[in-house]
Each structure stands twice: as C-alpha cells, then as structure tokens.
Amino acid sequence: MKTAKVYIVITLMFVTQALFAQLEFTTSVSKNKLGVNQRFKIEFTVNQQGADNFKPPSFAYFDVVGGPSSSVNQSWINGKTSYSQSYIYILQPKKEGEFTIGPATIEYKGKLVKSNPVKITVTKKVAIPKDPNNPYYIAQQNIHLVAEVSDLKPYIGEGIYVVYKLFVSKNISVNNWRVTESPQYNGFWNQDIDVNNTNVRNGKYNGEDYRYIVLKKAILIPQKSGKLVINPMKMDFSLGIPTGRGDFFGNMIMNTINYSAESTTKTITVKPLPKEGKPLDFTGAVGDFTFQVTTDKNTLKANEAAQIKVEISGRGNLKLFEIPKITTPPELEVYTPEHKEDVKTSLNGLRGRISDSYTVVPQYKGKYKIPEVVFSYFDPKKQKYFTIKSDEIIVNVTEGKELLSGNNTTTLKQNVAVESNRDFRYIALKTTFKSVTSNHFFKSRLFYLLLLLPFLAIPIGLFIGKKQAERASDVFGNRIRKANKLARKYLSEAKKQLGEKEAFYIALEKALHNFLKAKLQIETTDISKDKIEELLAKKGVDAEVVKEFISVLNNCDFARYTPSTNVMMEQEFDKAKNVITKIDKIITS
Fold it and tell me: Is 140 helix (H, G, I), strand (E, B) or coil?
C-alpha cells in the first residue's frame, strides 16, 4: 500500500513538472543604443533540453566580430531543476540608423519555435577609451543616477515631483554608496517624501534591463515664472567591476574601485498664471479645492461663545496661501482665529484641509449677520479660475442687554441758581500795584561767563582738531563708517517697509541688486547667482562673505511666499546690512 502511494506521488511530480515545463526562447542584447563604432552582445537563450537545429537571424546591417559561442547552465536547488542554453554573438553596426534584428529559430519536439525580435538604435561615433576594459569606463556605462520630473512646464503654484533613481546593470555590484551633495531647489517651495521601500527592482534604462532603487522623492511648488534650475544630486560609490577572470572555484574575480556620479541638471519652465479672468480677491491658491464657512451654533445668549470655522480642503498648494477672513458686526467680539492644518504629502502633491476657527462672543441681544466669504483659486488641469461663495450666517442672540440706539439718548439741562450780588463774584473789580526790581546784566554771572567763553573755546578747538586728525588717519575705521553709511543708503527703503512682508522683501532684494550694480557696473537682475558668485570672487571677496550674500538674496525669494514675522524681517535686514558693509570694505571702486 505504501509502495503504491510512493508511485502515485512520483507520478504526480513528473506530471506537474511536465505541465509547467514550458519552452521559453528569448533574445536579449547588452545595449539597445550605441555608437556606430561600438560593439554589443546578442544572446539567444532556450530553457529546455531537447531543443536543437538553432538558426540565427539575419545580421545584414551588422558585422559579426565574435561568435557564435555556446554556454549551458544547469542547476538543482531545493528539488527544482533549472536549465538554460545560450547562443552568443558579438556584433558591430555598419552604419547609423534604427534596425530590427529578427527572431532566431529552434526546433523543439518537432515544432519550430521563434524568439522575440529586438530593435537597435545606432548613433554617431562616440568616444571610446583606448582600453574598453578600463574599470572606470565600464562603471560609466553600467551605473546611472537619474532625476525624473513629473512636469517640466507647470504653472506658478502647481505641484510637481522629482524622483531620484539609481540604475545599476547586472554586470557590476555596488558595495556601498553615499550622497555627497543634495540637489538644490532654488525658486521652489519643497518638501521631501519619506522613501520607506528601498528594495531593488527590475526596470529599463534606455531600453536595456537594469536593477534600480529609489533614493529620494520630493514635492516642488514653483514660486515664480520663468526658467528654474534643479541642480544635480551627486554620489560616491564603491563598485565591484568584473575582470573577466575566475578564481579556483569558478567565481568571477572583481576589481573594486571608487566612482562618482551625478544626475543631470533639470530646467523647469514655469508658466505665469493667466491674467484673463483673474478674480480681484485671488490670493495664490492653485489646485482643486472645496470651501465652506460653518458655525457650531446660530442661537445663543449674550456672552456665550460660538465657533465660526472657515475651511478649505482638496489638493494643491494648501500651505502657501492665506485663508479668507470673515467680517463681523462691531457688536460681536471676535478673537484671533486658531489655525489648523491636516495636510499630507505624496507624489500626487499636497492633499488635506486647512482651517481658521474664530471664537465669537456677542455683547447684546439681537440678530447679527456675518456676510458671505469669497474664495478664489486656479485649477491648472482645467486652466481656469473658480470662485466659491459661502452662505451668510445669521447669529440670533436671544438673551442679554438691549442695544441702545444713538437717537434714544437725551441730554438733561439744569437751571443756573441766582445768588443776588454774588452772581459775578469771580470778576476782579479792584487792583493793587507792586514794584518790580530790575536785575542788571553788568557784573552778573552771565556777564562773566560770556567774557571767559572765547578763552575756553581755544583749548576745546585744539582738542576737537586733534580728534579729527586722528579720525582722518584711521583709514580702516573711516572705511567701516563709510561702508555703514553706504549700507544705510541702499537699505533705507527696505527699512521703511519693515513689518510689511511682501514690500519689505521686494525692497531688500532690490537694494542688494542696486548695490552690486554700483559696485560691479553690471545689471545683476539679468545674470544668475552663480555668475554673481564668480564676479564677487574675482573682486577678492571672501568665499564665506559671498555665500552669506547669496543666502540673503535667496531668502528674499523664499520669504515672500512663506510665513514671516517682524523679528525674522529685522534679522534679514541686519544680515543684509552686515554683508553690504563687508563687501564694500573689500571692493573700494
């Protein structure tokens, strides 16, 4: 009985293996795109024994510079058998163009089986090192750091995302790596997205098979129109490069090298929001939103609090615009609203809700109307502005003091009491004469003080002259005083605008550009910050001072679109004054 069961199990195993043992005959290439002076490997692989009479396709547009060679790989792991046999050729293209290599054929159990065709793109000659086996050249061809941007032409305020991927071919191994320079997003509001899954995946790069991992994700929201540049991410690697030789046990000997790579610079062309149809109350909301104003109670007593909530929900630049404010009658006491945000960040952008909650306390009995609130936004998908109006809110105060009208107040008049002869007692009817003693100037204290004043002026004048001479000889001190005076001159308008965020940062940025315009004799608004750094460096300005100046200039860009306090504005003002003073001390012309 047991023997029969064993036969049944063995039979089922063979039947199952036969059912799943389907023939696969595939074509793969080492690269799909190459220069006309390069070579590539084409490999035809069959996964079942018993297949024979292999016939390659036509290589009419290619020269066969190696092969055919054959390799067989067979293994038994955990009771499972795997088998593959490959036919390999090394080809070099004859000319430029796009070519299709047709399928190869092989016979299996009396049937003719075809492999898949492949497309090859041949470009102009490319630079090839003298030694194609140079490990750094091999690394360059087999590891790629890529920045993928969702949209290269967004609107101002429209969210886009950037994903950084590391593609590595199966020919090399990555021992370890580190990011040496993170990308810069100048002109964008940005927020990183956590990368929780760093598993290795299979994918395509330029049509070829690669392994890749996702290194970094970020949401970007452009804050101004024009061309904005995303600087590259830079990384260092320790790589294992195959030498083509095996050790005693048949394992490939690897050559370990240190290698650096960086992603390409991405230029984003940001479109301005259309002027046509732009509502007067538009405050910069871009996305797809809903809007509502609600209250927790419409009927209450005097001195009893009610909550009025203004809420915006949806997807878009939720953190970058102001919520419309409510208008209330003066009889309602309104406290500063409590601001709340419940916003999540993903590759789809910012999504969630923001709200302002007002506490309202009525003082008098009566009915009060809170007018409708208007909210406008721009939908970049529909390329259109939308305006939403809330319903007006009626607050009914049923108990409390009555509100007195201004016409009900009266003024009480009182009669003046008459007291016979004392009615005009406050008028003086008699006078008395008193003599005034005159004080003579001659021989007075003031007389003698003025007499001695010219003699006192001589040593005072000598002392002042000495101090002025010392100050004139103090070249360094004079330069500092001159630089401070110059800084106050350029920053005078910005100082007037302290407390007004938008106007202050515009004036501060203008002051910095005007200062450079005067010092460098150029129009700085037409050149990049990198060029400004280069020009200041040529003038002998210390790198730390240059970095400080560019930092203040960048902050003027960012701060106009992010929350800012008076203290922060004063700090930026002081930074700008200090850096102008430092540069002016160095650039005297």
Answer: helix
